[in-house]
Every structure is written in structure tokens, then in C-alpha cells.
Amino acid sequence: MTIFNTAISAAIKAGNEILKIYNDPSSDFSVEKKADNSPLTIADKASHRIIEELLKTTNLPVLSEEGRSISFEERKNWQQFWMVDPLDGTKEFIKQNGEFTVNIALIENTQPVAGIIFVPVSRTLYVGDTKEGAWKLENVKEAITFNDLKNRGQKLPANRQERNFTLVGSRSHANEETKAYIDERTKEHEKIDIISKGSSLKICMVAEGVADEYPRFGPTMEWDTAAGHAIANAAGKKLWHTNMKNELTYNKEDLLNPFFIVK
Fold first, then answer.
1. Is the domain of 186 the same as that of 102?
2. Looking at residue 62, which CATH number applies to its domain?
3. CA-CA-CA-CA dihedral for 65, 206, 154, 247, to nearest 10
């Protein structure tokens, strides 16, 4: 698990760097897109640099949202590589609601086998390995090992508390398909609670067991879901195509995900 510990360290260090920019009183969060020198641009590029530098020591290729564009011809034969989103939750970062994350996944033969999601503002760390399981640890202030996490963290999914059937949805991307899906689920359950959440935290909520499903009828990229997918799988959940027959796969020629449902 040495390389996985390196990735955990990278996620935490990158999150700490993002937090410096996020908490800088001189940062202007009025920008709504990745304009040059905006806090968002500075933050995700700084995060990418830290992650890339540390992951280089694992001798595995890195496919990152903020990295260079890598052709399918170059990466199609990669059997093992890192999939990285240095700062997931653009709108949440700009809105300053704290619901953004650092995502790192280990992909093997198109499948996410290990994932790390770090939430800089809350200092919450989600880690999953499909052979070992998934854990959550709060108040993470420094780099820790996977064994430390297993000893100190909460195993996922947590024991289900008595509650209504719960769906989690995007805080920024509601649409008609999602509303139609919710209407269908409402016919099956007497009461439904709906929680809005940003970034990959929606997948984490299903993995954690505080939500039952996350339907996503909108565009996402592979780096948006890979780490959460690994954590969900490690917790016994799946990221299904909407036909509920196949799971998402990674390192496709087109890195755009199909619509999916986490449950």
C-alpha cells in the first residue's frame, strides 16, 4: 500500500494549499469561471502541481483535469494509472460554501480500485480500497497512512439510522430528468428526503450510508467520479449506468461519463 499512502499524502497536502488560497482575504471570488489569475485557477493549478510531484514517485502515469491533454493513442494501453481532479466543485469553491474536494483514484484495467477524497474546509478524509473496504476520518490535519485510517476512522457504510428514503442531488445542476427520477421514486416510497450537496460529496454520502441514491442526469467527466466510484465500491455500492446493468468504466477515448445512478 506504499503508493496508496503517497496518494493520501498528496491529497491532504494539496487540500492544505487550496485552503490557503480559499482563506486569503485578498482573494476575489466574484469570478464565475476559470479566468487567468482567479483564486479558482490559482488553487486548482497549485493543487495539481503538488499532486503530480508526489505521484511521480509511484512511477505510474497521471491523468489530471489540470494536466496536459493526453491523447487516447498514448493512454489506451495504460493498465494502471492515477486519475486526478485537483479541485472538484468549481461552483462550490466560488460560492465559498466549503463543499469542494480533492479527488485521486487508482485505475486498473478501466476499473477504479482505490480512491481518496479530501474535503479541505471540514478536514474530512474518505478513502476506499476495493479489496480492503472504505473509511471516513474527520479532523485530519496531517498526512496519515491507510493503516492509521483503518484504525482511527469510521468504517463505511455506517450503521443505517432510522430515516426516510433519501436521495442526494447536485446543489448546482438540477434538471428535468432528475425531477422525473425523483417523481418515480416518490411513487415507491411513502416519504422521500432530498439533500443537496456539491462536488463528489454526493457519492460519499451514498457510500457512507446517509443517502440511499444519487441520480446524475447531467454531464460529468471521469475525474469527477473515479475516486468516489472506488470508495462507493469499497463500501458495497455501485455507480450504474441508468440501465442498471453496467457500471461506469474509465480511460475511455471520450472522457465524458454517461448518466449514472449511485446506489
1. no
2. 3.30.540.10
3. -60
> Can you tell me whether residue 206 is helix, strand or coil?
helix
222-234 helix and 201-208 helix, angle to the nearest 10 degrees: 10
What confidence score (pLDDT) does residue 182 get? Answer: 86
Same domain? 245 vs 143: no
**Spatial CB neighbours of 32, under 8 Å, sequence gap ≥ 6:** 94
Q: Are residues 190 and 138 in the same domain?
A: no
Check pLDDT > 90 for residue 105: yes
The alpha carbon of 74 is separated from its chain's Cα centroid by a whole number of angstroms, namely: 25
Per residue in 183-214, pLDDT (tens digit) is 888 889 988 999 999 999 999 999 999 999 99
Distance CA 45, CA 13 (A): 13
* Judgement on whether residues 129 and 209 belong to the same structural domain of the protein: no
Q: Which three cell numbers stand for residue 39?
A: 483564486
Last residue of a domain, one of 156, 185, 217: 156
Count: domains in the chain: 2
Residues in CB range of 59: below 8 A, 6 or more apart:
none
pLDDT at position 103 over 90: yes
Alpha helix stretches (DSSP H) within 166-210? 176-188, 201-208
Residue ending a domain, among 135, 156, 177, is: 156
**222 φ/ψ angles, rounded to the nearest 5 degrees:** -55, -40
CA terminus-to-terminus distance, the chain: 28
Choice among 48-57, 191-200, 206-215, 254-263 with the minimum mean pLDDT: 191-200
- pLDDT of 225 higher than 80: yes
Range of the domain at 240: 165-262
State how far the Cα of 134 lies from the Cα of 235, in Å rounded to an integer: 5
Contact between residue 194 and residue 185 where contact means Cβ atoms under 8 Å apart: no
